[in-house]
Structures
1.
Amino acid sequence: MTTPQGLFVTFEGIDGSGKTTHARRLADTLRGQGRDVVLTREPGGAPGAEMIRRLLVEGPPDRWSPETEILLFTAARRDHLERTIRPALARGAVVISDRFADSTRVYQGATRGDLTALVDQLHAAVIGVEPDLTLLIDMDPATALSRGLARRSGEDRFEEMGQGFQERLAAGFLALAARHPARFRLIDGRHDPDTVAADVLSAVRAALPLPA
């Protein structure tokens, strides 16, 4: 008996764009269809990676240099990959991750210094995995920032870098999507939540393997 094919889906976008909400909605919809779904996040998604998460998303904006952040994110991602993503895909699950390597490429590689080469080198050396499908939720930076800060989650370090930073992030994500059109699908986050959820599901349906 062959193992069913898994699918690795990631959500990307700026802070407050609705990624987390729509990752959850997608997971609920697919589970309702009888699929094995693992909903996870970055940084985090495994015990060790969750410990590193607190170092990255809490504290003052200048807590770490971009280079240090890249190393911490990569360490968390390796733990996430080993303990959560690979085992789930091996058994044929749909893995839905709220952020993955594209966030590091944009947040640290493209918007806080020209560190893209360093991000790519580390990714190739210790991660070596890309999603099957990446859903980029495009959102007005000012609106998204107000949403993110309103949550008062205690994980506001990147939101506290300000609107200018969010605008650079939005441009960085769009540029990355343009470079990888086969993998990225652009979702208009300005629509109402039900419309966004329908657009997300439509984009995923075409990539889904047949149920076992």
2.
Amino acid sequence: MNPANPSGPILVTGVAGFIGFHLCKRLLDDGRAVVGLDNLNDYYDPNLKRARLAQLEGRPGFSFARLDLTDREGIAALFARERFARVVNLAAQAGVRYSLVNPHAYVDSNVVGFLNILEGCRHNPVEHLVFASSSSVYGLNTQMPFSVHQNVDHPVSLYAATKKANELMAHTYAYLYGIPCTGLRFFTVYGPWGRPDMALFLFARAILAGEPIDVYNQGRMRRDFTYIDDIVEGVVRILDRPAAADPGWSGDSPDPGTSPAPYRLYNIGNNNPVELMHLIGTLEAALGKVAEKRFLPMQPGDVPATWADIADLGRDVGFAPKTSIETGVQRFVDWYREYHGVRRDEA
């Protein structure tokens, strides 16, 4: 079978979310058939999710299923009806800090919901499951850059713990049932149509409103900010390369990133950590307005720095992010102004 023309549609869960929307748009541009799933919950403004979805609805090859991952019967029926060739699971309860407030939402969506996806793949001939993990799984690890070949058993948020649980669950299904599973640890994705709970969106809104921005850890934070188009390119390349068993894997010195099962983990990031204060300065320049800064201590569940080792992804699929923070932030600002109807002379 030609991997670029699989036998059935691609399921993208979380299609009204930030990454899911952009991925679906790219797949449709490539002529793929996509079923997008989302529950359109109100974790953040559902109007933004609907606006993303409106960009997809009506396009050839796209259909939408409004469904919650925790709906076991609904998910099973969807898989049986559509006979998906590939599955990209991006739906999740996101956000590190919110997991301190509403922990049950994370277990419901990220653990119970993911189990339903795995069961759908188990009982139907899915050729490849690609699922979202997170850089947050590295937790207390301070060895930089973060590598998928390092141990990640010390999470500092429930969100991170559920993402590590996803990796373990997927490995179990890959081992028991031969389902090719690839986990992608995303590193601070940003860009147009981004999430309103992320720093760039929060900062832009506050700066334009003349309100102070909250700068945690006294500004001594570094993040491997990764532009959305680079992320999507990496996901598409991985989607067409189903995970395979590692013939060199040894139980005497087990490699966390590979397996004797058809299972792989990859970091997907920019491999270029950016100081938070540099991000803020870049945003100020793009907006033409200086932020009032409120310096605060580190928040529970946060880590001071992230940095993705992407050597494996580069070697296996040629992944090489191309978008600088200056270019990416400017594109975000251009979109933000247009979406919110903010004129340049209002900055």
3.
Amino acid sequence: MKKIVVLTGAGMSVESGLKTFRDADGLWENYPVQQVATHDGWLRNPTLVTEFYNMLRRKCLDTQPNEGHRLVAALEKYYDVTVVTQNVDNLHEAAGSTHVIHLHGELMKVCSSIDPYDPRYIQELTPENPEVTPGTKAGDGSLLRPHIVFFQEAVPMIEVAADACTKADIFIIIGTSLVVYPAAGLLHYVPRKAPIYLIDPGDVRVGATEGFEHLKMGASEGMRKLFAKLVP
């Protein structure tokens, strides 16, 4: 079975009603990134950061996977599919994707602030109880923090994602500007013989030319066209 690796960014979830961070009306217009998405911001005001991600979880729970998510999941009937996402929402899983690598963490999880990747202290929140009371402690006595990779922090799943990319027979990019590293660098791990499809309505600079196709449209429309091409 041929392997497809799908790299998704914020544009993947826009049609589900989740704002991107960087667009003009994005989340960071109201919440400066330095305050809510950096390690220094967490150390400076953990209560503000905790409440910000409580708000994001409430928004996320009001959303549903869009057709683009569902079509990515449907590819699993015909291909070995790995999704590498820069998104912290769980819409790929909700749509049915079974192998999802979250580069930047997962919104519905919280963890130790001493060692965010100690599995003993990672907790998954539920739709019934999606909020964390500021000051709540993890099992190791540290403050419970969002299981999110903040700016200034390493991206521990990048090596796992890069390894998946080296095995791709087909590489699909959806809804990302390819300006955020290290995720943007994953393109360099894709075998030269693998065709690359980019689905994004904007202009995205990609070094690849041979075997590269840009579907200049949103996630759902682009996936409809690509699905018809990939599935006989």
